[in-house]
Amino acid sequence: VSGEGLIDWKYDRASSLYELDLTISAMMMTFLYASRGTVDPAQGFIPVSYREKRIGRDRTVMIDHAAREVRFSWKPREVKAMPDGIQDVTSVVMQMTFLMANDLQKAQVGHRFKFPVARMGEVKFWDFEVMGHPVVETRLGRYTTWQVRRIPPDNVVDNDVKVEFWLAPELFYLPLKMLFNKKDEVQLWVSLQKIRQVAA
């Protein structure tokens, strides 16, 4: 099955607010993964909400930094503690890019990152590792990338999505490719086809 996707990235310098949407359409179905928050020059991405919209489901995770709580739109009475450095499923890729772009030591093969990630109904720690710097061929040309993969925890049953992506420093650190491995063995490949930059 193939379809089309759009990564829509907006940032307002005056307010430091960002909007990051990943929309995927295939077989007359549309999936939305959306992050909202601010960007701090020292800390990077600070998400305040994360939304997932799939077939018959539209849910939002709210991250309250003042109260240090994570809440869920469909579970109003359930509250999770907010760890330091929290990200959501979409912002975590951008946060890793921010850290590597500001400290190239973190882009070296074998370097690991650990983030608390707000997901659908829970907060989990995800580990990522820099796997290499392969050259990736695209419609836009050949680019040296930073290949990063989520590493499942040892000796623990892990049903979270497996994530792998290839970032291109020459193209504003955009992901040239992304791979999502679902727990039901379904693989989702996303490949960059074109870039459209709109002046702010």
Task: Describe this entry's structure for a reader.
This protein is mainly beta. 6% of the residues lie in helices and 57% in strands. It has 1 helix and 16 strands. It has one helix at 91-102; strands at residues 4-12, 17-26, 29-40, 44-54, 57-64, 69-72, 75-81, 87-88, 112-118, 123-132, 135-138, 141-144, 146-151, 162-168, 174-181, 187-191. The strands form 3 sheets. The protein has a 7-stranded antiparallel β-sheet. Strand 1 and strand 2 (17-26) form a beta hairpin.
Instruction: Report how far the terminal alpha carbons are from each other.
Output: 35 Å
Q: What string, H for helix and E for strand, traces the elements in order?
A: EEEEEEEEHEEEEEEEE
- Biggest sheet strand line-up: 1-2-3-4-5-6-7
**Poorly predicted residue ranges:** none
Say how many strands there are. Answer: 16
Helix count? Answer: 1
Shape: globular
DSSP strand content: over 45%
Cα-atom radius of gyration: 17 Å
Give the mean pLDDT.
91
Helix content: under 10%
User: How many strands, which pairing sense, and closed or not: the largest β-sheet?
Assistant: 7 strands, antiparallel
Q: Supply the helix-strand structural class.
A: mainly beta
